[in-house]
Design brief:
By secondary structure, this protein is an alpha/beta fold. It has helices at 5-77, 191-202, 251-257, 261-276, 306-315; strands at 83-89, 99-103, 123-128, 138-139, 152-158, 176-182, 208-212, 219-223, 231-238, 241-250. It is built from five helices and ten strands. The strands form two sheets. The protein has a five-stranded mixed β-sheet.
């Protein structure tokens, strides 16, 4: 077939148009691809934000171990209490219960006071960490239970109560009132320690109750005397009954020898009040075993001891 020149020109024109059309389409694809690239870039930015957020989470997680360590530290600082059995050996007497459960680091009196044993013909002094009749460590309700040792406590006894042989008649089985009167009034600074001596007897578990009474014939006085004693008492009685007493405290010797004046006054007056209800001097060997011992430390021992309480209760039939 013969192709004319005109036909060739027309064909060339058509081919040119087709090529132009393809170029535009390709450009469109490129533009679209560029848009996708932009969109993809946005996605990358979003992903970067997510990564930053993830880093923030990691930082937050890094902070948590500090809290965990703190919690662990708090937990480790709590030391669980260890319970131990304390055996109570009445040492010839009887006691109930015969053992108690206590925690190391607590006091022997935690959960209840140490029981008081009994023994016929003997007077209980206190619990000790040895069965010997002297020495060892005295165990009080406020003594701390150690990590080791003191797993058996022994009762220590002394001879039956020694007394003057006379006492105040009791108005009833529970209370024995002992009136007294200060005459003249004690010097400045002395009244409170002397009142404390009365209170220290009154708050112990005995029937004795000291009280001031302006009509009482039981006279208490304080004066600066040449004598070497701290205190003296005169007791008047008939049969086994005390009728009257008078107490003198020597302010000169007390003031000169005291390192704690208030305690010293209280100790001396409490001692004389012990005589006023029938107790004798030096009933036990231990210096601080009784308010009645001359060798006690008057600067510290101001309260009648367990021995003194037992002695009074036996004397006044409350054993």
């Amino acid at each position: 077939m013969k192709i004319t020149k005109k036909a060739l020109l027309l064909l060339a024109t058509i081919m040119s148009l087709l090529m132009l059309s393809n170029t535009v389409f390709a450009n469109d694809i490129i533009n679209y691809t560029d848009d996708e690239t932009t969109y993809f870039s946005d996605e990358i930015s979003y992903i970067c934000d997510e990564v930053s957020y993830a880093f923030d989470e990691i930082n937050y997680i890094d902070d948590e171990p500090s809290e965990t360590e703190f919690a662990n530290t708090e937990y480790e600082s709590i030391v669980p209490l260890t319970n131990v059995t304390i055996t109570l050996n009445p040492n010839g007497g009887s006691v109930s219960p015969t053992s108690i459960l206590r925690s190391i680091g607590s006091t022997f009196g935690t959960g209840g006071s140490l029981p008081t044993p009994t023994r016929s013909g003997r007077v209980f002094i206190a619990w000790f960490d040895t069965s010997a009749i002297t020495g060892g460590t005295r165990v009080h309700n406020n003594t701390i239970v150690p990590a080791s040792g003191m797993r058996t406590l022994f009762a220590r006894w002394t001879d039956p109560v020694r007394h003057l042989g006379y006492w105040w008649p009791s108005a009833n089985a529970n209370t024995t009132n002992v009136p007294l009167r200060f005459s003249p009034q004690p010097p400045s600074g002395w009244q409170t320690p002397m009142n404390n001596a009365m209170s220290n007897w009154n708050t112990r578990d005995t029937p004795i109750n000291f009280a001031t009474n302006s009509n009482s014939t039981n006279i208490v006085s304080v004066g600066s005397l040449a004598a070497t004693w701290y205190g003296e008492i005169s007791i008047f009685y008939s049969g086994s009954n005390i009728n009257e007493f008078s107490v003198n405290l020597n302010s000169r010797t007390i003031t000169n020898d005291a390192t704690n004046l208030g305690n010293f006054i209280t100790s001396v007056f409490a001692h004389e009040l012990g005589h006023a209800i029938g107790l004798v001097d030096n009933p036990v060997a231990s210096a601080d075993g009784s308010i009645m011992n001359h060798s006690r430390n008057r600067n510290t021992l101001t309260i009648p001891t367990a021995y003194d309480v037992t002695s009074v209760n036996i004397l006044y039939s409350r054993n």
